[in-house]
What we know:
Elements: H1 3-11, H2 13-20, H3 25-51, H4 68-73, H5 75-78, H6 84-93, E1 95-99, H7 105-115, E2 119-123, H8 148-159, E3 164-168, H9 174-181, E4 186-189, H10 194-207, E5 211-217, E6 220-226, H11 235-238, H12 251-254, H13 260-277, E7 286-291, E8 296-301
Parallel strand pairs: 1-2, 1-4, 2-3, 4-5
Antiparallel strand pairs: 5-6, 6-7, 7-8
Amino acid sequence: MTAFAKLMAVLMVPFTVQADLSGSAFAGVAVGAAIFVIALYVFMLRKLKANAKPAQTAGPTTTPTFSDTELERYARHIVMREIGGAGQKKLKNGRVLVIGAGGLGAPALQYLAAAGVGTIGVIDDDTVENTNLQRQVIHQDAAIGTPKVFSAQKMMLAQNPFITVQPYHRRLTVEIAQDLFQEYDIILEGSDNFETRYLANKTAVALGKPLVSGALSQWEGQISVFHPASAGPCYQCVFPQKPAEGVAPSCAQAGVFAPLPGVIGAMMAGEAMKIIIGAAAPMTGQMLVYDALYGETRTFTVKRRNDCEICGG
């Protein structure tokens, strides 16, 4: 029995009472109250659906509507003042590219999918290995040997079949970066090498796309939003050149605390969603550093450099 049917069954009680107390004032009041409650329920249900559906226009529209299942799924977003039905529609229309399906990409992809971001691209040339499973929680033991992008796609669609996942099983290169980035609104960079980070930054700046960047090692992670088009710095403003060999070892070399990628990756997804919704200020011009060993966070102001070879001048 549906919730509405149950409500109707309860509301029919006053009519039974009316049969026993025919002509009494109590019966009239009960019936009036029942009608009022039914009308209020129908009004609120229609209002909720209207908030999550696009306004009717004279011509065709590409803005998607929500099924009843999606309305229920995203209800905790829709009731939030800063998101609402309009914000959830923006998420469904959103297009986010995630570079890397590893430690940072795994939680970012999971939350973007669960939250209903409509189109999510993921590019990675790696395959799932046993050593990944300690922290890359989107992949399962049975996926060992499978390209990470296809493993991630399978899990994302299992979580939310109402989204589109575009997997690119290849490395990000100069030849494809610009064409690929043009298809998306926001870029999440969670790779494990500086060549990819600098390429992603250069391409995002050239196209005016916001770049949500995360990095981690051992117990410490960092996150920032680089977007010179919004008066913020670019990645190369803060890191003009890659560190000397051995100064910033990879996770394979130095190790990483298993929950740390989950913390930073989830925050990356949150920053991307805030940019799509436009409901709050993203971390443009700020860098947050989280120390999992001591449970401390520090936030630094990062500024654009006039002599930056990527965004300066």
